[in-house]
Every structure is written in C-alpha cells, then in structure tokens.
Design brief:
Elements lengths: L1 H5 L21 H7 L7 H13 L3 H14 L35 H28 L8 H19 L26 H7 L5 H16 L9 H20 L4 H6 L11 H24 L6 H5 L3 H6 L1
Helix pairs in contact: 5-6, 5-8, 6-8, 6-9, 8-9, 8-11
Length: 310
C-alpha cells in the first residue's frame, strides 16, 4: 500500500493531431491605438537638446535660471562670510610654560567660585526677563550686550582652568586639530588634566543651554552684521572650550596625571551632546525665521568639534 502512494504519476503524453490555434494579426489601426513610441537614441536626444537650446529665447533662459535659483543654492553660499583675521594665529604665551598645580583652592574658595558664577548668571537672567516687557528700560536693548556679559563669565570660568588664557577669543586662532596633534603651544589635555575640578564643566553647560534660548528671543536683521558676528563668535568660543574639556576615557582612567582634572564625566558628556544638537537646529531655524541668508558655512560649524569628540 505504501508503494502505491509513493509512486509519482506519469507525465501524460501530448495528444497527436491537435491543431495549433492561429492568432489573428494586428492591423495598422490596432497598432496606432497601442500608442507605442520608439525610445530615441542618444544621438537623437543630443540633437533635440541642441535644437531646443538654439530655439530658446534669452527671456526663457533667464526664467529657467531664476526658477533653478529658487530650489538650488549657489556654491558661494557655502563659503565663510565671517573672518576673525585680527586674532593672533599663535598663542605664544603658552610656549614652554610649566603649569604650577601646587596652589590649590580650598573648599570654601571653591564654594565662593561657584556662588560667584551662579550669581552672575542670575543677574543676566533677571536682566533678560526685564527686557521681555517687565521693565524694558532696565533690561537688555539687544543681543550683543547680553552676549558680552555671558562672555565675561566664560572668560572667568576658562581662566580657572587655564590661567594663561584671559580672553577666550584667542582660542579661535587655534587649529581644530591642534589638541590632538601634540602641539606644544596649546596642549588642552595637559591644561584640563592639571586644572582643579571645581564644577567648571557644569557651569559651561548651563551657559550653553541658556545661550540658544537667549539668542532666539532677540530677532535680528540681515543688515545687523555686528550681532551676527558676535553670535557666531560666542558659539565658536563655546565649541572650543567644551571640546577641550572632552578627554578620551582611557586617558582619564589610566593616566594618573589627569585622572582628577576639569574634564567632562559621562553624565555631562551626554548632556553636552544633547545641548549641542539642539543648538544647531534652533540656530538654523532662528536665522531662517529672521530671513538671514548666506551663512551656511558658519551654521554648519556650530559645535562641530564638540560633537566630533563626543
């Protein structure tokens, strides 16, 4: 019985004598109804393009160019529009400097340092709130005075890390790869590693978090070059100081010289990444809302170094 079910059925033989069906041929009318066009050759396409170009009026060409300009950006829009050429290209005062770490601040001095920074940030916040309608005459008249006050705190905090740098604007002259190329003029790993950790990273992250919110509340115009330049300068400075405080985890774990430096821990690094990504998006939207164009390159550089290291 099992052999019966396991046997495969034989293939039936073709029937002999069965006529093959004849298919009717399509006449010319049926072919026209199909609407089949032959694919033109490359030579025919080129000839058609040359013909269209020769028979297109200058007005039509200008209209087409204007139409393309609405959808495509020019290459020039992605070139730098702002320069900081007045800055010194070499921080000579960092050459052959021995970092003295023998003098450390006491616990009470650390508390005074944090209290002072917090007090200054609160003053800026109160003055900012006053400018929003509560007391405009005592508030900020524009974004530049506010950014100048923030920069003073940034300078002060960074000076507590690097006591040879009194003006963070000098950091903009540093090459983005200098901190990883072993440049003796500015070894950020040595500077941050030797610095006393007093919560500087947390203060810098608070400034970065507040910065994008402050900037978005003061609309500017395309003609306000001073405000535009100062906005980018502050963001570029923050990019430098934040990126300098990010040190490879293996260095902070195995190198006793920098295991207690003023660098970011894991929690601060996660917070830093979130702030930087949000700032890039919101600043681009801010410039778009203010109808300011031509700063694609500068916008693409916002927190670039920090995000690359994080």
């Amino acid at each position: 019985m099992d052999n019966i079910y396991n046997e495969k059925p034989a293939t039936p033989r073709a029937e002999s004598g069965v006529a093959t069906p004849e298919l009717p041929e399509l006449d010319s009318k049926d072919l026209m109804d199909l609407d089949i066009d032959d694919e033109p050759t490359t030579q025919e396409k080129n000839s058609q393009l040359q013909y269209d170009a020769m028979n297109t009026s200058p007005q039509e060409t200008d209209d087409a160019q204007q139409q393309n300009d609405k959808f495509y950006d020019h290459v020039d829009t992605f070139k730098p529009n702002l320069s900081f050429n007045n800055l010194d290209k070499s921080l000579s005062y960092h050459t052959d400097i021995t970092y003295d770490t023998s003098r450390r601040l006491s616990a009470s001095q650390e508390t005074k340092f944090l209290a002072y920074c917090e007090e200054q940030l609160m003053k800026i916040q109160r003055k900012y709130v006053q400018s929003r309608g509560l007391n405009p005459e005592n508030g900020y008249t524009g974004i530049v005075p506010l950014l100048k006050d923030l920069k003073r705190i940034i300078d002060f905090v960074w000076y507590s890390i690097d006591n040879n740098c009194k003006n963070t604007e000098d950091l903009l002259s540093l090459d983005s790869t200098s901190n990883s190329s072993g440049d003796d003029n500015y070894n950020n790993e040595l500077i941050v590693g030797k610095a006393q950790n007093m919560g500087q990273c947390n203060i810098l992250l608070k400034i970065a978090d507040d910065l994008i919110d402050y900037v978005g509340k003061f609309p500017i115009t395309d003609d306000d070059i001073d405000s535009i330049k100062y906005i980018f300068m502050i963001f570029f400075i923050m990019d430098k100081v934040l990126s300098f405080t990010i040190i490879n985890e293996s260095r902070t774990t195995h190198d006793n010289n920098i295991c207690s430096g003023a660098f970011m821990n894991t929690t601060e690094l996660i917070r830093c990444t979130s702030i930087c990504e949000r700032s890039r998006v919101q600043l681009f939207q801010f410039f778009q809302d203010c109808k300011i164009h031509g700063y694609h390159y500068e916008l693409s550089k916002i927190y670039e170094e920090t995000l690359d290291k994080s």
